Task: inverse folding
């Protein structure tokens, strides 16, 4: 039972590949390595180097590898940068998804797990986000993920009476952190954990943007979820699709309670053994006090749970990052 993971050489994708293999499924990866790393793909897992925009390549891979389903993780994931590069964002995330769907249809592959994003909600005016919370994305990245969900849903309707009707689900989540394997770590130059780690390694003081929010400690409250939990939910979703079990069109992989930025900073100091007092910088425009999602539906259907404490999340991320430094020296 083979599953294609687009973007499987990236931080999240590589964890999904490992989770698939651990569940007895056979992963194959397609990745252009624009932000992924060939070294993140385990030995023995086929790596097809190329873009999801290359329709013949995607279709040939689906046929040659006898793929049963696709976990579509590939995309341009930088919300802030997407404001400066909207055309690139839409090409990778919207056109890329369309091409994947077209190739799947041609190859008769009818199961799809879409790695969406909580960015589809924008800055909701509710404390706890549910799947039905109105979608008001505030960046081209969030917009592109929402359009991707629409494309997939429309293709599901269009193929309902065909020999291979598309079965699909979209998984939405906020801040993915930690590491489930010291060989894989978050290399994004825009995410909180790498930013804090790189600052500390360079002898700089990490920053907190605003400490006067309406939260218990004055700093933003957000969902932080461990990458291994995210990967496990993707695998269960794939298994439900392949087994013909009922599945919702979308799930929020939320923490229910969230963590503050200061709680993260305190945990970083504990994990790294580097004492520091974060520099407090001015608020960033548009940053809401709190955005946290419920994971009740995912807990019901996808065995979703937050299995890691904040210290375990930070420690696993730090050990993987430190291991990368050791390997490079």
Result:
């Amino acid at each position: 039972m083979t599953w294609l993971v687009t973007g499987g050489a990236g931080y999240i994708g590589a964890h999904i590949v490992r989770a698939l293999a651990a569940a007895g499924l056979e992963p194959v990866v397609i990745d252009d390595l624009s932000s992924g790393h060939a070294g993140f793909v385990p030995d023995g897992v086929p790596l097809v180097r190329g873009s999801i925009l290359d329709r013949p390549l995607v279709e040939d891979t689906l046929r040659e590898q006898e793929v049963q389903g696709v976990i579509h993780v590939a995309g341009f994931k930088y919300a802030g940068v997407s404001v400066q590069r909207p055309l690139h964002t839409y090409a990778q995330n919207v056109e890329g998804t369309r091409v994947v769907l077209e190739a799947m249809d041609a190859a008769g592959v009818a199961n799809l797990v879409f790695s969406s994003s909580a960015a589809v909600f924008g800055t909701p005016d509710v404390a706890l986000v549910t799947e039905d919370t109105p979608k008001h994305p505030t960046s081209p990245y969030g917009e592109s993920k929402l359009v991707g969900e629409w494309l997939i849903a429309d293709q599901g309707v269009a193929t309902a009476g065909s020999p291979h009707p598309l079965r699909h689900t979209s998984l939405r989540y906020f801040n993915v952190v930690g590491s489930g394997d010291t060989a894989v770590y978050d290399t994004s130059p825009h995410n909180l954990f790498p930013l804090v780690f790189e600052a500390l390694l360079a002898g700089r003081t990490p920053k907190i943007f605003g400490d006067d929010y309406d939260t218990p400690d004055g700093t933003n409250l957000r969902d932080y979820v461990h990458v291994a939990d995210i990967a496990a939910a993707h695998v269960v979703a794939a298994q439900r699709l392949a087994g013909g079990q009922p599945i919702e069109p979308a799930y929020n992989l939320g923490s229910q309670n969230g963590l503050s930025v200061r709680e993260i900073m305190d945990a970083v100091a504990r994990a790294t053994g580097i004492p520091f007092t974060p520099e407090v910088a001015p608020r960033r425009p548009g940053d809401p006090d709190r955005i946290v999602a419920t994971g009740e539906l995912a807990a019901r259907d996808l065995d979703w749970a937050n299995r890691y404490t904040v210290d375990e999340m930070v420690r696993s991320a730090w050990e993987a990052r430190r291991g990368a430094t050791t390997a490079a020296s």
Residues 2-175+224-252 form a domain with the Rossmann fold fold (CATH 3.40.50.720). The chain has a mean pLDDT of 94.
